[in-house]
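User: Continuing from earlier, I have the next pair ready.

Assistant: Great, send them over.

User: Here they are, in order.

Assistant: Folding the first of the pair now:
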Amino acid sequence: MKIRTATPADADEMVQVRTASWRAAYAGLVDADVLAGLPEEASERYVRHLAQKRPLELALVAEKGPYVIGFAVFAWDRDEAAEEDAGPGVPGEVLSIYVHPDHWSRGAGRALMNEGVRWLTEEGLTPVRVWMMEGSEVSRRFYERYGFAADGARKTVELGGASFPCARLTLQKDAAAA
């Protein structure tokens, strides 16, 4: 498996990974019609996003052979600072991390997270945080195994006309090294 920086050419495979991951992890939490419509809404957005190459943002893919099996995006915590104020001292955030369900529990997620957390730390974007949809046991287990813990912050996100409660988790100091 290889971890590398994502490019716009990876967008279609990233969408396939995201779609499969969402359908497996959020079945029963998110309406099936919303899950079925993911590729249409996501592909163009990912291509546009990757083409921007914004400062203080890192998009990675995990490849196995010629295929993208996972991806992650890391940046500054958008709830803490605007882009022009982002920099050392502002918390970092895992904006997204998805691995195709056929490759769950085989190290791709941890490898992506290791590289992203290393980068965030080097950029001075600490502590590292992630928002997780409540009720997703797959997500909760992954983040807790990595060393994240709920910090009490909560928000609601809208998706497909429905509201979903989310909890923020913060990486515990030196947990990723364990």
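And the other member of the pair:
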Amino acid sequence: MKTIKNRSARNILVTPAIAFLSVVLFLTLSEKASAQNGAGIQGVEHVGINVPDLEKGVAFFTDVLGFTPVTQIGPLPLDAGWKQANHVNPGTGAVTIKMFSAGTGANIEIICYADSKGNKVQPNTDDVGATHIAFYTTDIYAAVKYLKAKGVKIIGEPYVTQGGDTVGETWVYFETPWGSKLELVSYPNGKGYEKINPKVILWSPKDAAENTSFSSKNEVENLSINKALVQRHLEIWNEKDQDTRTAAMAKIYAKNIEMVDRSFIATGNDEISKFVEEVQKKNPDFKFMAKSVEGHHNIIRLYWQFGPVSKPATITGMDIFVLENGKVKKMYVFVDDVK
């Protein structure tokens, strides 16, 4: 696959425009192809944890961690065949399942068996099957202080990672009243590996929480937000100072953004920034301007023009932005034929 390092800037000016319907079809197929593996898995929907007492479990996740209980099923009796297939003790009673909204991220499911005959001892940390759930916090030290005030057992002190891929991360374990291990983690300035601009970035509730959810707003609000984002995008492409451009990119572009042209793909802000610089050098008096902006949900369509003051529409084209967590995840570039 070619990148911008193998391609001259002048070629960006000769890509044909394509009808919007075709663009949407292309985007839909592209996104589905990358998102769906053999099982069609889209992401983590919930994490389940067994609790010995439903009321105590609800109280901990609600009153201490601040999660919101949403749904409940049960008590449901379990037949002998289901118990055998799922390795449930024959003498264990009905099951009750309660689901919580846990902020930005997967839901939390607590499961309680009446008159459980299962093992009451929590698995050791090095036991096969031992698990834990990690919760992101903006201030880990304040979070630890809060949990201690609630009588929660903190295991040790927050550990600051000193090197490797997760440098910049601080974490600490804590326990539920029934002994299950949970974790607090924080990395307000990101993790070390992100600085090398990998193609894939780990999902983080930090990024999701910092950005606006477009789907929760009405069309008027969305249009205003879309226009503001496009304006910042155009400012990036007109900015000649590299440091200023890089800082602006970090605010509206995802770290692993892809810019897709008919004949090349640029990945990451560094590659896109170099391409912008190349275009500017070739056209020092040209400026990008918006002609019109449209959008719905997480897709924005921008019609633009590029040229000097005397002929601002020397080059025209259309960009399609695919947003994820309020930032541009993919940018599809279509340039009209030069007449």
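Worth noting for the second one:
The domain at 4-32+213-335 is CATH 3.10.450.50 (Nuclear Transport Factor 2; Chain: A,). The radius of gyration is 26 Å.
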